[in-house]
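[job 4471] stage=fold_predict status=RUNNING
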Amino acid sequence: MLGNLFINTAIEKLWKINQSHIDRNNPNSISSFRRKILGESGIARPNRYEVTLQGPLGDLTMPAEAVTLPGRSFVTLREQWYGPERAIPIEDKFDGNVIMTFPVRDNQFERFFFERWMDDLAGQYSLVSNHTMEIATLDGFGEKTSRYRFEEVYPSHILPGNLGASMFNDYTRMQVQFEYRTYHVLPN
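[job 4471] inference complete, writing structure tokens
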């Protein structure tokens, strides 16, 4: 019985040594993948961010419940001199909008904030050029890791919201769609 235990323990140790040697030398191993992905800073989490708006009422960091980041592409020119046709990028194209969902306080501060901002902008394009928005991604310690900085941003739509008698275990939310001219992704 004691001999079998000794043999099993020796086999387990040899297998672990062999396995760790295989993992260290194999770039496609799970251990190697984990080291590459988790490395120094870890993997980005979609729930770690903060939103700062610079609008007509000043700078405001708002707790956005959800943020939809926009896409980006190119305006292209089709060209064919010989062989297959190809698309040549000639200009940046910023696709879509930024849509955010905000929790609404009892005093409806968030709703009044965006209603007033839209009232102030009606017919006054010059006011748009002064407004920016920044969405910062955060690491596990709350430190900024990158920033999406939007230029000439303004709320273009307050999307319809829901109220209902059966929603007594929920809270009020509002969605706001923002237009912008351009954005830049900046490292921290």
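[job 4471] summary: The domain at 49-187 is CATH 2.30.110.20 (Pnp Oxidase; Chain A).
[job 4471] exit 0
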